[in-house]
Prior knowledge:
By secondary structure, the protein is an alpha/beta fold. 47% of the residues lie in helices and 8% in strands. It is built from 11 helices and 7 strands. The chain has helices at residues 43-54, 60-64, 67-71, 97-119, 164-171, 180-200, 203-213, 217-245, 254-264, 267-275, 288-301, and strands spanning 12-14, 90-91, 128-132, 135-137, 143-145, 151-153, 158-162.
Amino acid sequence: MRYDDFRRSDDIDDRRDDSGSGGFGGGGGGFGFPMGGGGRLGIGTVVVLGLIGWAVGIDPRILIGGAEILTGGGGQAPSYQSDRPSSQAKRGAPTDEMGSMIAGVLGEIDDRWDEIFSASGRTYKGPRIVLFRNATNGGRCGMAQSAMGPFYCPPDRQIFLDTGFFREIETKFGGCQGSACKFTAAYIIAHEAGHHIQNLLGILDKAHALQQQAGSKAEANAIQVKVELQADCLAGVWVNREAKKRPGFIEPGDIDGALRTAAAIGDDTLQRKMQGRVVPDSFTHGSAEQRKRWFMTGYQQGTVSACNTFGASAL
């Protein structure tokens, strides 16, 4: 991916420390998920939530009540906290390699979506990205931890991202190789920005209402899958529009790398890796094939209307 001429966005809070943050590596953290009351989940639930954490997606506590859906109990979602960024946070476009790439991707995402919204008479306001290591205050979405993976917090309109996740996509999941990993990082950010688009369009609120009315965990999960696949498709829409604006930004192997990542973080792939079997009713992000197919739908057609997973006869 060529990104040297990308517009760098200043809508970034950099909460990483000053040591070793310049490359495409680092990061860490174990399987953990903060819950209300200060407790932690049992190991069985941690494994299930870990699947969500390693996948790219929205904070499940916002859409499906996290623990209550996944454990079948009456677990209470964590209370929202006021958003008080660390005093160490640096605001604006970072200057290190990783931070500059992220700022560039966000700038181009905002520009393309502003064009799409303007064409339909809407006003667009982009999300902020919070870069961190290990853990940070997630504002009204509670504590952000590395093990949760990247996620979008709808009430604060912020994307939380431990950049070590990109390295794990390459090393732990084989989702990309070499220079294609930069495009993979852009796909992941564009997916999270897709959740922001859903938020602006009111789709997340409608999905949440449908999940509250769902008669079973399987039904609620099926709605979540449609939300996630739509975000994959919207990521593809951005790639389509960006490629038209900057024809040379996609390099050989980039699209294949994005598809490889989509497959690596499909629910079926993750479940086979972590529990040795596939349970479709527990899917929350979609299968490998579904994630690849919807990303390509957005990429090939380049329209928001093409991403109507809720109206699709088959996913």
